[in-house]
């Protein structure tokens, strides 16, 4: 008989071909090994990488560990402990199931596995190199599994050439680590690279995890999502428009713990933000979908990023509703003040004074209802150990200077007839001694004067405390004595050094019952020196019960809150201009220290739409 032309590929070639799909870069190795650790029930996962993972990826877990018999099979293609039948695939609870990852990795890198089951007296070490047979020997090992992958792609130079710089590869890995860190906030995560700790996270609630990874500013600017239909539960957090970014980084979607990509669902989220964001702005979100595994197919992509739902439309609708519901509950569905807009026809000199609650139009329902005060959002974040995340300057920070220049540009004359009545120099309008209106390039910006000033003073206070420079004081002609209660005195003593840095020059009197003030921060107005100190101590005590770990932050926020101009304070043009200039010099001008928005932007587009204008 003739020799057949077709031959079955030997394992090592088949594995290398599969590796092309599963292992594209060091990040894929990290992802697969981390998923294996999670599938093994690890409560703690540590990842060490060197040279962007090209030289070394070492993943350590405290999960189930493997027996010798399992270890022998672990690197075999299609060897998995996670499914045995198609039925299991339908009810999948694990992240892995294809039994391809270790086989693929071992075909393009040196692999060492050290593993021990908790009940075993000793563990096992496996050593493997591409094209060589693997070796297993008894070894001392802590319970759990360590997988060490060295010299990725050294047998496949063509693939190695495609890798980017170490820094870029590390960035990919960091993104993946952030994703799993978010998806499993109840686990301990350690992530190091050759340069040191990238992050080090203890088990914590999701909001604290977000805070640990993205900073307290972001965590303070989120609203919770919690929504349930018959088929899906959606929970997590979405960002206020104020922390929208210029890129799509920082958008995280999970399906039953698995990070997923879904253009449709992301679109549903954007729809929820309609009119709140410009085309160039991208919302921050961390959303989890919990769904019966039988209703999704995760097996449509070798890396399992993409998934298929059995009812795509229902999912789209649920996600959209979930976002809208949260926005409604948190007063974020934008509201337009009918009264203000009418009264503001000349946009000048609207007398202040008591007004009945203004009416607002609910954008969604079209109803006209009295405006309700938005509750002050206090951040419940409590960061006990603040991990460090080394990142470059966040990409989403808008270019402040440009924004400012845009705001301060001379207002282009409106329609001819109107421009006569509207003096060119008047670029800010104060409404009800409370809000400042500014015309922007493409709409109207409304700034809350108190919150804006609070933000400015908060950042100044933080800087002052860090710099420890004593140039913020104004001397008092006559020292002022401030009586303190025992509780206030205790706080005063705790904060004395930082208060001095803020600009308070003071000393306890001999009997310890009061404080003598010799100088106060420049921002404190004459006559309120004593009150300011007492109020700051009081406010500090309140914040401290909410966020005990953030002492300096709390002091800065208390100072900002107490020393800022209030709603009701009339401002001159120059004062408004100064305020806005100072505001846009802030690092985060969009939100107050506790997450309330400082400004609201009404795009012209939105006004045009409401007036039924098409151009
Ligand atoms: P899959 O995860 O799809 O099953 P892998 O190639 O990633 O395939 O892993 C093969 C098998 O090796 C797993 O099914 C599991 O039984 C075992 N394994 C891999 N990593 C670990 C680990 N960290 N702890 C315990 N078992 C592991
Ligand atoms: Mg796996």
Structural account:
The chain is α+β, with helices and mostly antiparallel strands and 615 residues long. It folds into three domains: 11-203, Histidine kinase-like ATPase, C-terminal domain (Heat Shock Protein 90); 208-329, Ribosomal Protein S5, domain 2 (2-Layer Sandwich); 384-615, MutL, C-terminal domain, dimerisation subdomain (formyl-coa transferase, domain 3, 2-Layer Sandwich), CATH 3.30.1540. Helices cover 35% and strands 22% of the residues. The protein contains 20 helices and 25 strands. The strands form six sheets. Strands 5-4-3-6-2-1-7-8 form an eight-stranded mixed β-sheet, with helices on one face. The protein starts with 10 loop residues before the first helix and ends in a 5-residue tail after the last helix. The model is unreliable at 334-401 and 410-426 (pLDDT under 50). Residues 32, 36-37, 40, 61, 63-64, 66, 70, 74, 79-82, 96-103, 145 line the site of adenosine-5'-diphosphate.
Q: What ligands can be seen in this structure?
A: adenosine-5'-diphosphate, magnesium ion
**Proper CATH architecture of the largest domain:** 2-Layer Sandwich
User: How much of the sequence is in beta strands?
Assistant: 15-25%
Q: Largest sheet, described in full?
A: 8 strands, mixed
**What is the structural class?**
alpha+beta
CATH class (first level) name of the largest domain: Alpha Beta
> Which term fits the overall shape?
elongated
* Total number of domains: 3
User: What's the pLDDT, averaged over the residues?
Assistant: 80
- Measured as a percent range, the helix fraction is 25-40%
Give the radius of gyration.
30 Å
Low-confidence stretches: 334-401, 410-426
Q: What's the total helix number? A: 20
């Amino acid at each position: 008989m003739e020799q057949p032309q077709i031959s079955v590929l030997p394992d090592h070639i088949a594995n290398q071909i599969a590796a092309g799909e599963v292992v594209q870069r060091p990040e894929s190795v990290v992802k697969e090994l981390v998923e294996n650790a999670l599938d093994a029930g690890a409560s703690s996962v540590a990842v060490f990488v060197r040279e962007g993972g090209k030289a070394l990826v070492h993943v350590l877990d405290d999960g189930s560990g493997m027996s010798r018999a399992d270890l022998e099979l672990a690197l075999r293609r299609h060897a998995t402990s996670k499914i045995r039948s198609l039925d299991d695939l339908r009810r999948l609870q694990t992240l892995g199931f294809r039994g391809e990852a270790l086989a693929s990795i071992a075909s393009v890198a040196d692999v060492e596995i050290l593993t021990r089951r908790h009940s075993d007296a000793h563990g096992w070490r496996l050593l493997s190199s591409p094209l060589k047979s693997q070796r297993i020997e008894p070894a001392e090992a802590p319970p759990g599994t360590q997988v060490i992958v060295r010299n990725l792609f050294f047998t496949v130079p063509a693939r190695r050439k495609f890798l980017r710089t170490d820094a870029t590869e590390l960035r990919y890995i960091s993104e993946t680590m952030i994703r799993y860190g978010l998806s499993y906030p109840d686990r301990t995560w350690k992530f190091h690279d050759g340069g040191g700790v990238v992050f080090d996270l203890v088990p914590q609630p999701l909001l604290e995890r977000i805070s640990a990874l993205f900073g307290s500013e972001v965590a303070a600017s989120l609203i919770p999502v919690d929504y349930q239909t018959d088929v899906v539960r959606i929970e997590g957090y979405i960002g206020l428009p104020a922390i929208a970014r210029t890129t799509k980084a920082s958008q995280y979607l999970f399906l039953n713990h698995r990070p997923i990509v879904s253009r449709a669902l992301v679109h549903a989220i954007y729809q929820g933000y309609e009119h709140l964001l410009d085309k160039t702005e991208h919302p921050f979100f961390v959303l989890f979908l919990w769904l019966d595994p039988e209703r999704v197919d995760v097996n449509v992509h070798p890396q399992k990023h993409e998934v298929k739902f059995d009812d795509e439309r229902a999912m789209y609708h649920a996600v959209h509703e979930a976002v809208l519901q949260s926005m409604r509950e948190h007063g974020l569905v934008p509201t337009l003040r009918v009264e203000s807009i009418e009264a503001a026809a000349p946009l000048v000199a609207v007398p202040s004074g008591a007004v009945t609650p203004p009416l607002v139009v609910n954008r969604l329902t079209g109803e006209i209802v009295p405006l309700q005060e938005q509750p002050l959002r206090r951040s419940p974040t409590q960061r006990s150990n603040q991990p460090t995340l080394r990142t470059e300057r966040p990409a989403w920070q808008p270019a402040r200077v440009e924004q400012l220049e845009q705001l301060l540009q001379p207002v282009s004359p409106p329609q001819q007839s109107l421009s006569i009545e509207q003096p060119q120099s008047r670029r800010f309008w104060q409404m009800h001694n409370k809000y400042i209106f500014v015309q922007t390039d493409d709409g109207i910006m409304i700034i809350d004067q108190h919150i804006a000033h609070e933000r400015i003073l908060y950042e100044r206070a933080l800087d002052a405390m860090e710099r420890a420079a004593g140039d913020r004081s104004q001397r008092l002609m006559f020292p002022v004595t401030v009586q303190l209660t025992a509780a206030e005195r205790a706080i005063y003593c705790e904060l004395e050094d930082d208060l001095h840095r803020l600009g308070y020059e003071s000393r306890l009197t001999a009997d310890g019952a009061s404080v003598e003030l010799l100088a106060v921060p420049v921002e404190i107005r004459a006559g309120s020196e004593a009150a300011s100190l007492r109020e700051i101590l009081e406010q500090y005590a309140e914040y401290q019960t909410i966020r005990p770990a953030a002492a300096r932050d709390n002091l800065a926020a208390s100072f900002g809150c107490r020393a800022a101009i209030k709603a009701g304070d009339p401002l001159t043009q120059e004062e408004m201009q100064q305020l806005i200039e100072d505001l846009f010099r802030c690092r985060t001008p969009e939100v107050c220290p506790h997450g309330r928005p400082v400004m609201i932007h009404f795009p012209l587009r939105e006004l045009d739409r409401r007036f039924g204008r098409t151009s």
